[in-house]
Task: structure prediction
Amino acid sequence: MQRYEIIVIGGGAAGWAAAISSARAGKRTLLLERFGYLGGWATAALVNPFMSHRASDGETLVGGLYKELRDRLAAEGSLLGNSFDSETLRFVMQESLLESGAQLRLHTVFDAAKYLPGKKISVVTRSKSGVEEFVCDRLVDCSGDGDAAAALGAGFESGDENGVPQAVTLMFDMGGVELEKVMTYVRDHPDQMRFPKLPAESEPAKLAEGVVSVAGYYDLIAEARSKGEYQAAGELIFFIGRPHKGEVVFNTTHVGNIDGTNAEDLTKAEIESRRQMASIVSFVKKYVPGFEKSYLLRSAEHVGIRETRRIFGDYVFCADDVIEARKFGDCICRLAYPVDIHAGKGDGYTKAEGRQAPNVPPPGDWYEIPYRCLLPVGLENVLVAGRCVSSTQAGHGAIRIIPACVAMGQAAGIAAAISLEHGVSVREIDNTMLMDSLRAQGALV
Ligand SMILES: Cc1cc2nc3c(=O)[nH]c(=O)nc-3n(C[C@H](O)[C@H](O)[C@H](O)COP(=O)(O)OP(=O)(O)OC[C@H]3O[C@@H](n4cnc5c(N)ncnc54)[C@H](O)[C@@H]3O)c2cc1C
Result:
């Protein structure tokens, strides 16, 4: 049996940050990850770009480890605006984690957890080494699915009022795309685009040098569908440029009614979304100007799951927190990203934006995520961070983005370390001390 002060489950955006901040605080820290690399959905699911970490007036809202990550990507020439290269991300996350002194165990699946006398926590894993047990004083669940918190008995909910979660998406990268040609068509056909709608004087060559983000091609899709040459969901395709020339990532496939904690559903999602991907690849090569010589570069290793368990915490983050730009005395992250929900049925993107209700804070303003969202009701010495935190579906739709997951993870790691340092539970730590520690590490709270 191996003993650690802090164990972090899951090495996605949140878990990476939690393990680094706890190790930097001098705590013996272990990060357990089921895949062979770090990044979670930002690498395994090919999610890109980082959604906005700024207010509408441009003020930067998220700093700390998120800034460090961006700086390292930029130093490698792998960041363009908010768009990043996912291979470089795997590498810089790995190296920065190891530099922090945290220990890393890859290819290891969390299986079970239970409390031991003295409120220590036993964590059981499965891997090629067999079944192993680890013991820790504090557990930070960054599995995205709340696997560990649920195993310890935390309550949770999933999906909308009927339990239907947001649709899932298999992301994929294409290379060999002639972006100048793409942007020429986009400029000349604003009626065919949901975005961008470019002024006639726009220069495609210049646009192609920046971050390309395109959603549309309504008539081409309708034509291909009528000929039996398009089988994916939705009325449009959506792709975003990667930092490397001629590479774009598609966020277009959608499969509905998938429970990301159910292997049967996941199998169905992988099969169906891969069929959609094949159809989209054939379609763009035949129909979309600029894609004639393009090719499928890579598909995600795991279909992207937007939401599964949202663990019940001491505070449940909701849409009103976003719209009313609420501030909290235990703020761990500032954000202005809107409530963003992909319909659960899996119909895909439509020409018109469906949402009528307000979904953003007032111009220039922001909202805050309270530390209490990280504290599972009824559990001691356990924190959750990232996309499994306590929230309604709408609240979750705002705070699930990568910059926020990094910020929540950083706060969870520091909070776990403070609670050990002061011999109190994670629920009893002083908010001022937490926020001061976060500020000392560059966080903007
Ligand atoms: C299709 C899609 C598109 C998105 N688009 C954007 C976007 O454009 N911009 C943006 O900012 N955000 C986007 N998001 C949201 C964002 O990607 C995620 O919410 C965020 O990356 C979640 O980070 P996390 O660390 O909380 O969880 P995850 O990234 O899910 O990481 C969890 C980690 O835990 C590991 N794990 C899980 N279970 C176990 C276990 N039992 N044992 C061991 N390890 C385990 C996983 O392998 C993974 O590495 C998108 C999400 C999806 C699915």
The chain has a mean pLDDT of 96. The CA atoms of residues 8 and 31 lie 5 Å apart. Residues 172-299 form one domain.
